[in-house]
C-alpha cells in the first residue's frame, strides 16, 4: 500500500490465511500452490523416497544396501604436503572458524562473569557449611 491508502500495482498482497500448523495442512498448502492439489491427492501415493514406496523397495537401490565407496580420490588425499604447508592450512582454517564465532558484547561478558563468581561463592559457602556440619557431627559421635 502507498501512503495515500491505494494499492501499489507492482506489489501483490500476501493472503491473509493463517499459516498451517500441522504437517498435513502444510503439505496440502504446498500441493495447492504447485497446482498438483486434488489431482495428486486422488492417487494417495506417497512421495518417492518415502519408506515402503518407490523403486528402492525390494531392490538393491534402496536404503537396505550400504552406501557405495567413492570412486575417485581428491588431489589433497593423494598428495602429501610439507609440514609448513599443513601448519599454514591449519591456521587458516582456525582463523576461518573463529570468524564464524558470535563473540559476546562487553555487557554480556560482565554479566556472565558476575553470574559465575556468584555461583562459585555460593558453592564455596555450601561446601564450607557441609564440612562444618559433618565435623560437628563427628565430634558429637566420637567425642573429643
TrEMBL record:
The gene is secE. Coiled coil: none annotated. One of its GO terms (biological process) is protein targeting. The keyword Transmembrane applies. Pfam families: SecE (PF00584). It comes from Prauserella isguenensis. It is a single-pass membrane protein. It is found in: Cell membrane; Membrane. Component of the Sec protein translocase complex. Heterotrimer consisting of SecY, SecE and SecG subunits. The heterotrimers can form oligomers, although 1 heterotrimer is thought to be able to translocate proteins. Interacts with the ribosome. Interacts with SecDF, and other proteins may be involved. Interacts with SecA. PANTHER family: PROTEIN TRANSLOCASE SUBUNIT SECE (PTHR33910). This is Protein translocase subunit SecE.
Amino acid at each position: 500500500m502507498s501512503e495515500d491508502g491505494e494499492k501499489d500495482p507492482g506489489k501483490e498482497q500476501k493472503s491473509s490465511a493463517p499459516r498451517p500448523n500441522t504437517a498435513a495442512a502444510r503439505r496440502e498448502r504446498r500441493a495447492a500452490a504447485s497446482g498438483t492439489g486434488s489431482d495428486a491427492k486422488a492417487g494417495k501415493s506417497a512421495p518417492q523416497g518415502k519408506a515402503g514406496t518407490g523403486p528402492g523397495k525390494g531392490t538393491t537401490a534402496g536404503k537396505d544396501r550400504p552406501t557405495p565407496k567413492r570412486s575417485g580420490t581428491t588431489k589433497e588425499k593423494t598428495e602429501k604436503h610439507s609440514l609448513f604447508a599443513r601448519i599454514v592450512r591449519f591456521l587458516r582454517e582456525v582463523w576461518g572458524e573463529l570468524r564464524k564465532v558470535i563473540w559476546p558484547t562487553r555487557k554480556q561478558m560482565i554479566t556472565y562473569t558476575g553470574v559465575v563468581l556468584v555461583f562459585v561463592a555460593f558453592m564455596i559457602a555450601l561446601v564450607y557449611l557441609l564440612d562444618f556440619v559433618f565435623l560437628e557431627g563427628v565430634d558429637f559421635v566420637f567425642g573429643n
